[in-house]
Amino acid sequence: MGCRKSVCMARGVFCRCCQISKQVSDSLEDTALKLCRKAATTAETLSQVLREGLKKRRHFKAEKISLRQERLSIIKQFRRLRTKIYAFLMESMPDGSTR
Q1: How far is Cα 62 from Cα 68, in angstroms, rounded to an integer?
Q2: pTM of the predicted protein model
Q3: Residue 52, exposed/middle/buried by CB under 10 A (0-12, 13-18, 19+)?
């Protein structure tokens, strides 16, 4: 005679077939829970890595902008100094002669 699951459930006593079915079901549920926990941990780790990556990217981008501004400032200072040197040379040689 085959397994009658409804009879086993009503009595609360499980036949061999229902015991195996319950063990498999419990095992699958445990495995599913473990996988969900692992997925959540992995998602949190990925999220954290992405946040850190964005922070570093912003930091490097700000640093790059700062370096660019510093470079432009140095170029402007050099141009001003060059202009002053030319003006000084022109004043010191009024006849326009070169040395």
Answers
A1: 10
A2: 0.43
A3: exposed
As a residue count, the chain comes to 99
The domain limits of the chain are 14-92
Tokens, residue 70: 């510093």
Of 22, 84, 8, 21, which Cα lies nearest the Cα of 92?
84
Cα gap 32→40, rounded to integer Å: 12
Residue 21 neighbours by CB under 8 Å, 6+ apart: 5
pLDDT tens, residue order, the chain (99 aa): 456 666 766 776 767 777 777 788 888 888 888 888 899 899 899 889 889 988 888 888 889 999 999 999 999 999 999 999 888 888 877 665 555
Amino acid at site 65 = I
